[in-house]
Amino acid sequence: MFRKKSENLSVSSGRLPDFKYLRADDIYLDNACQSPRPQPVIDAMTNYYQTYNACGGRVKYKWGQKVDSLVEETRDLVINYLGLSKKDYICSFTLNTTYGINLVLGQLPSGIYKQIITSEIEHNSVFLPTINLANRLKVKRKVLNRTDDGSLDYEISDLEKSIVVVNTTSNIDGRLLLNIKQLVADSHKSGGIVIIDAAQTMAHYHELLVGCEADAICFSAHKMYAGSLGVVVIKKNLLETLNIGIVGGGMVSGVKEQSYTLLADNMTSWLEPGLQAYGEIISLKYAISWLNSVKPDGLMPSQYIEKLSRSLHEGLSEIPGLIILNKTPSSLISVYSEKVDAHRLATFLSASGIMVRSGYFCCHYYLLEKRKFPPLLRFSIGLQTTEKDIRKTIEIMEKIAKG
Q1: What is the pLDDT confidence band of residue 402, given thresholds at 50, 70 and 90?
Q2: 262 phi and psi, to 5 degrees?
Q3: Which of 175, 195, 242, 362 sits at a 20 to 30 Å CA gap from 257?
Q4: Domain check: are 89 and 222 in the same one?
Q5: 99 with 245, same domain?
Q6: pTM of the predicted model over 0.85
Q7: Is 35 contained in some domain?
């Protein structure tokens, strides 16, 4: 059975040289958590720490000036990567996607919006902050359905003066928010705003976001082959409405005994209190440059991921007793077995060098409360993944299924 399917896999040149530090028998399939870093990204971070390890935005000596230059290049590259304009957007850095979403939502003013909209398949980084926001603003909160293709199922009336907070790629089954641009247009016409959780989108599906004029886009660099870092790309006109309440060094032009003045000519600093993770920020520049140039097996990254996803989905689909949540192939595929607990499956796979995630993936409402699924097993592919990795994963899963 498996040999027949393996004929669909073309001969591969093996793992990309940028991941040569990985052991040949290690199969890492938890990229939805964080991706391995390619060598150019590792080199960039090492170079920062070894040759110009200085603060940014505060000093005039050459190390600091180099940091400032590379940080600004990273901001520009992020905005360009999303097909947006520096005239309308700024890029700030933070801890992770969760912190970025909380940073924006926690500083939204009251009295402007009448409701909050989110969806059923959100990560806790969206689901929990929107509960807190509804309580703080004293407005109603609606949890809408997502269709099988990932589109948000809404009525125009749902969007009136609403704060819409949704993911563009589900971390459960990879469903994409295919109607994102229409959602943004309809929200803006209805006096609302859209804040995007793009954590699972930026590495392999970022084309979905190109030119999408959402009001804020939050994502994690460590899920797109860079250092551990969060990113917030936000419209200047939304940033100007925030009640900036998380404050500190590097944000002000002046301080008096009972007041302070934010830097008017550096709005990025409004979301960046204190010293930043400069090495990680610089690594993001190299990660995006790498994603723009790398060609695994001569393919674009999205094409390569699609090919491996299709092969994994087909192979898993033929294993008796294995239930696949995905309607279509994706870089994220979640399953459960009718016979074996997912945590035990993850342990068995680990014994064969295959690293996957088991549990509820911080999506407790949808998976546990609403669907009442048992713990799940999630495979998430990255650019370090090879066709050999896929074949071995399917082979081991078949052996486990046979008992």
Answers
A1: confident
A2: -70, 155
A3: 242
A4: yes
A5: yes
A6: yes
A7: no
